[in-house]
Design a protein that fits this description.
The complex is a heterodimer of chains A (115) and B (112). Chain A is 0% helix and 50% strand. Chain A has no helices and eleven strands. In chain A, the strands form two sheets. In chain A, strands 2, 4, 5, 6, 9, 10 and 11 form a seven-stranded mixed β-sheet that branches. In chain A, strands 1-3-8-7 form a four-stranded antiparallel β-sheet, with no helix packed on it.
Chain lengths: 115, 112
Amino acid sequence: DVKVTQSSRYLVKRTGEKVFLECVQDMDHENMFWYRQDPGLGLRLIYFSYDVKMKEKGDIPEGYSVSREKKERFSLILESASTNQTSMYLCASSGTSGGSTDTQYFGPGTRLTVL
Amino acid sequence: KNQVEQSPQSLIILEGKNCTLQCNYTVSPFSNLRWYKQDTGRGPVSLTIMTFSENTKSNGRYTATLDADTKQSSLHITASQLSDSASYICVVRLGGYNKLIFGAGTRLAVHP
């Protein structure tokens, strides 16, 4: 069974704080993704990574950065949290780089509130 | 513009009844379409996947259909159970790219 875990289920931070969201997968997947999910909107891709130390911008990268030092771990960093970054953050991983039918497996999500 | 639209936004049905959720897309080129189920407070879990040549796929009480000509898909749930209460998300993969286009989801509530 694929397992994707995220470091926190709920997080409350203050405006201007630096925030780290961690994601770990145990299936040796090449691809990892960070999304945010807001009510009434579909999941939106923030960043993704095809390999260690590789990163690509998604649709909404502004205000975020990522780090992938090890294959199993993908971190999302909010350099200076703002209230409009209050959201549910979902991490996903998939194997078979470039395959069109590979499933993305999602973690349980981190609900971040920025006050 | 590549878009995925789902309807209805929300739906309430009684336990044991059937229901159908709709997904219309304008994604091109098309690679495949997947339905995910997302329980409250959880990440999405894949239910079915269909490529261009497939027009129906079942997973237990869930049956997905795809009409690639009209760019429409539906997810039919038979004999609903309380555990079917969740959001159902339609996701289309852009052909030739490792990019997914997500619908906003349909929130289903099954009442006893």
